Amino acid sequence: MLFSCSATSKYNIKITAPQLQSDTVYLGRYFMGNVRTLDSLVLDKGIGEFKGKESLKEGIYVLYLSDGSYVDMLVGSDQTINVKLDTLNMPYNVVFSKAGQTEDFYKFSMLYFGSQKKAREIGGAITPNTPEAERNAAIEQIKALENDVITQREAYIKKYDDGMMGVFLKGYQMVEPPECTLPDDCSNPDSARMAFYYAFFRDHFFDNINLSDERSYYVPFIRQRIDTYLNKVLAQRYDSIIPQAINLVEKSRGSDSTFHIMADYVLAYATNYDLPGFLDMRHIMGIDNLIVELADRYYLNGEAFWADSALISKIQKKADKIRYCQIGKPAQNIALADADGVYKPIYDMAGTKYTVLVFYEPDCGHCQQRLPKVAEYYKQFNDSPDVKVLAVCMTDDKQAWQKFIKEYNTGNLINLWDPERTSEYWKYYDTSETPMILVMDSDKNILVRNIEPEVLNYFK
Prior knowledge:
- By secondary structure, this protein is of the alpha+beta class.
- Helices cover about 40% and strands about 20% of the residues.
- It contains 13 helices and 15 strands.
- α3 packs antiparallel against α4 and α7 (about 240-250) runs parallel beside α9.
- It starts with a helix and ends in an 11-residue tail after the last strand.
């Protein structure tokens, strides 16, 4: 008795392309904003099949040709799909059959793109000289097109609420804020309104996307949505971003796969900010605190089950490098010595408003350039208790230290060192790059770290 391959296949996507004979067709899938190629086939007289013994993950897929033409295809629970390609006019005139969600996804896509194209044509015909009546009529036409798309979208969401079509359409739809109502005696309504909408989008930006549903990550827009949230919706401050980044990971914990995807994404986001060369991102001082948070919550306690020993080791090193010198956290009160060898805690030498702590090496070219600038900054304070600058030489060669002070005119700084190496300053302060310049506030909390000397002029 003979059995067809398709009878035992979990998915079967039959391709018919009359214009092609032996061309190659590729099957890809969206994942976190990118298309990953999963399979390819060479057509035989314009016919071929993608099939497999395990079901495809539900999501938005792509059928594409070597010339770059493509069409998006929804794969839902029904994975027997017939596709007839018009290869001369892709993605138009494609015919999907057998799988209802797949057919309706394509129909809606064509409706949406057709509506957008028509709206652009109508809008493009409006000029400054267009009579008001014609202008208003054009605006009404555009609104009608938009309403038609909305009506169809809502109908499909109702029809496929729990299906892949529902996941896609609900996720694509941006959340709408409620009306902001303020009391009549509000003294600053503009600021209050801005604060209201900021709080709304901070807390509800992903209301239409279930981050614990793996299907949500196999759509074209998910990466852009997450990036927009972290980089534009949230206030670009470390203490605004980090709690919400952790919240994204927590929202993803509905399954192992979604937890893995989101935790690794947020880790990549955090480490990108920490890499040398990402200077355009480093303006968010303290964002690398997120590395410590992720390490302690997920990666160093075994919860990130997918992380191998090599990754864990890298994360451990990155986290430990800044663990004790995080922005917003108290600086470690290490004891350092003066030229006479007398050790004293740095808190005892601190300024009443600001304390600048500088770690440097005598033979470091960057230190030789920057320490004189730090000394010049400090001259404006004379003997004021408000600001103190502690310059820590990272050598046990006293002669080299004293020579540096004399040659680079840094004698006005509070010059310190640790010849006995009892303070373990390298453990508590990130001295992997020198000079390392750090500023503390009056409570000894770290305000900034790894800055250029010019930034010190903000602290007076």
